[in-house]
């Protein structure tokens, strides 16, 4: 009997050694891919070297293989390649707004930074770009500016979204259409000429929220330009709109093709 136990123990040890050897011969699991800035928005919190003319900050949006940059004047966008921790940016398209004072120089600063193929490093919520003349530390926008709640925030209209275009104008800036959704779903605000009241039932969704609006206004008449803004605002609040919040910006897309971009007060 002792001999049999000895032979069994030796066989078991050989089996374990063989299993261990097979295990060691297995291919190692591939390493998880490095995190990248794609899908996030970052705001500069520190710049060393050449400062941003006008003070910035620099905002970088990484989405769908593209980058959009804004340092206080125009927006610049183009395709971006993040391989080898270098920012390879294609030809940039830019808006053409004129900016006063030192801010006008921010466009040149952005172009030199991005076209200079800066290196990038991501550490949690902190993104660092190292260029030829500047090193920029940026923080995820959701950390710097957490999403504002849809309810209980006064939202100011900044842009009209129509089936044909996005419309910003001096009239919108002057009349400042706005709305507030109370915790109980009550809707109050100003459509541009008339006061706004009604209901706004908010239903949370994976992509943001659906808001079912029922709105009524007073019956004053204003100039044609103001009435045109008001009609566009009311079209966006006619029925159900999909809502998304990014920091202090609320975007509404109505199923009828109209919508609004609003900024939290």
TrEMBL record:
Residues 39-138, 149-260 form the DUF306 domain. It comes from the Bacteria. It holds the Pfam family META. Keywords: Signal. Residues 1-21 form the signal peptide. InterPro entries: DUF306_Meta_HslJ (IPR005184), HslJ-like_sf (IPR038670), Hsp_HslJ-like (IPR053147). PANTHER family: HEAT SHOCK PROTEIN HSLJ. This is META domain-containing protein. The lineage of its organism: Bacteria, Bacillati, Actinomycetota, Actinomycetes, Mycobacteriales.
């Amino acid at each position: 009997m002792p001999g049999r136990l000895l032979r069994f123990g030796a066989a078991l040890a050989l089996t374990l050694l063989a299993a261990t050897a097979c295990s060691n011969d297995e291919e190692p699991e591939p390493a998880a891919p490095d995190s990248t800035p794609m899908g996030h928005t970052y705001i500069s919190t520190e710049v060393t070297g050449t400062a941003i003319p006008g003070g910035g900050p620099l905002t970088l949006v990484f989405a769908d293989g593209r980058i959009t940059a804004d340092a206080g004047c125009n927006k610049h966008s183009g395709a971006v390649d993040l391989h080898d921790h270098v920012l390879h940016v294609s030809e940039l398209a830019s808006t053409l707004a004129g900016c006063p004072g030192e801010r006008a120089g921010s466009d040149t600063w952005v172009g030199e930074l991005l076209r200079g193929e800066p290196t990038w490093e991501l550490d949690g919520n902190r993104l660092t770009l190292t260029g030829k003349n500047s090193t920029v530390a940026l923080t995820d926008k959701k950390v710097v500016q957490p999403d504002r709640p849809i309810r209980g925030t006064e939202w100011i209209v900044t842009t009209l979204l129509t089936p044909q275009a996005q419309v910003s104008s001096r009239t919108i800036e002057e009349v400042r259409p706005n709305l507030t959704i109370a915790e109980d779903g009550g809707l109050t605000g100003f459509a541009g000429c008339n006061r706004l009241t009604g209901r706004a039932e908010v239903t949370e969704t994976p992509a943001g929220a659906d808001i079912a609006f029922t709105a009524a206004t007073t019956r004053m008449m204003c100039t044609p330009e103001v009435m045109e803004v008001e009609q566009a605002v009311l079209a966006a609040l006619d029925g159900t709109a999909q809502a998304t919040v990014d920091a202090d910006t609320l975007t509404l897309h109505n199923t009828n093709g109209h919508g609004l971009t609003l900024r939290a007060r």
